[in-house]
Each structure stands twice: as C-alpha cells, then as structure tokens.
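step=encode ok
step=design start
structure_in=
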C-alpha cells in the first residue's frame, strides 16, 4: 500500500504477471484498481480492497506520526 492508500504490484519473479491483460515484466510495477484481474502462472486472482479500512488505517498512521513529531525528547547530554 502506498502512502495515499493506493495499491501497486511489483513483479519480483522471473516470469511475467498479467494484470487486466497487460504484462508486468520482472522488476516492473503496476497500479492496482478495484476488481483487477491478476494472472500468475495461469492462476487468476481478483484484487479488492476495503476502502473503509484503508481510510481508517491512513488516519491512524497520520495520528501516530503527528504524535511522534509533538513529543519532546530529553537528552542526557548537557548543552555547553
């Protein structure tokens, strides 16, 4: 999952992967959308994501990152 909540697929294998009829060569990426058909070695998969859960995850991640930047950390070193 990307930072904006979108999804992509990278082919890490030696053989091609087919996404909605487009070949994804080894080492290349393609964006995934709703109901994408992914074919790997003659096996078909349908990609679906739960957008409600994705949005909640992004909100929670943003809150955690905001809290980290607001925390003040004490240093054991003295300032001269």
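sequence_out=
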């Amino acid at each position: 999952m990307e930072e904006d909540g979108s999804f992509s697929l990278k082919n890490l294998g030696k053989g091609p992967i087919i996404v909605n009829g487009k070949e994804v060569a080894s080492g290349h990426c393609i964006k995934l959308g709703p109901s994408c058909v992914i074919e790997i070695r003659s096996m078909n998969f349908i990609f679906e994501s739960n957008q409600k859960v994705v949005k909640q995850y992004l909100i929670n991640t943003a809150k955690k990152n905001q809290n980290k930047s607001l925390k003040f950390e004490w240093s054991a070193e003295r300032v001269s």
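step=design ok
step=annotate ok -> Residues 7 and 33 are 7 Å apart (CA to CA).
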